[in-house]
Amino acid sequence: MNPAARNRSHPLLDPETVTATERTASAHLGHRWVTAGFTDLDDRASHPSGILHGQPFSVFAKFSRAADAHDQFTAELAGLTLLTRLAGISTPVPVAAGVIELPAGCLLLYEALTERLPQDRGPREWRSIGQVLAALHQVTHAQFGLGDQRGSFGPLPQDNRPVPANRWPDFYLERRITPLLRGAVDSGHLPAGLAKGVDRIASRLPALCGPDPMPSLLHGDAQQNNFITTATGAVVIDAAPHFGHPEFDLALLDFFQPVPEHVLDAYREITPIDPGFPGRRELWRLPSYLAIITVDGRGPYGLAAIDRLASAITAYG
């Protein structure tokens, strides 16, 4: 399908959705705002997404028809607000209330950012990602989790309640591995042998997790495309925040593509990385593999996640 034909069928270009976006942006601006073009960003997001262009700002929009879309988007907005409040980092500016309900679904709207695309990043942009991640991790807390504040990991719910033992292996098992393993099994996409392999790893987590860390504020889904690099530094998007192990974020930076050493160099200038981290990198990726298998099933990402999960089980199981 050619891009123009695909864009005409994009849910963000539905007339009712465009009207709602223009009305919301106009209220945010204080006078009339109209869209004058559209950029499809579906290949960079887990929901239908894009930029509706206009002046003096453009609008980034994300759309969902899920029954809990309002809760998901509200949690995402609250999570980004939390990161800015606690760590002073930059996050996108919501357009008006940010979350807009429509008869056909729900919209999340932010002021679009002028970014330097990942393929065009230079050392300064890569370093800004490491600096922002280190700034997050400098914020600590007495407990793993995030109280009663639930969140989302992509399109899946994320349980952030603390666990009684308040140790990282217990939190990681009870709030990350166990629910995501259950979801992957229930989806029918996870081979039984791999499910047993994850169970074996789960039983050995206290020995595999290394030194118990101080709970640090995490991005929670820190793959490199969840940082927008701008002229003034990196801006965090699509976060799933909670207090956890800093290595969990570090392991996701190069989950999809390699990142240059500039990222970790800048990070280390602010806070150290334990020498044992490289040996634990795949351990912290297990929730992502299980989530992708659940959502994508036998699609290309799901099949790739199955292969990578199998390799991790061989390494740790």
How would you characterize this protein structure?
The structure is a single chain. This protein is 44% helix and 15% strand. The N and C termini lie far apart (44 Å). A hairpin with a 2-residue loop joins strand 4 and strand 5. The relative contact order is 0.13. It contains 12 helices and 11 strands. It folds into 2 domains: 3-111, Phosphorylase Kinase, domain 1, CATH 3.30.200.20; 118-316, Aminoglycoside phosphotransferase (APH), C-terminal lobe (Aminoglycoside 3'-phosphotransferase, Chain: A, domain 2, Alpha-Beta Complex), CATH 3.90.1200.10. It is an alpha+beta fold. Mean pLDDT is 94; it is low at 1-6. It is globular and about 60 Å long. The strands form 4 sheets. It has a 5-stranded antiparallel β-sheet with strand order 1-2-3-5-4. Strands 6-7 form a two-stranded antiparallel ribbon.
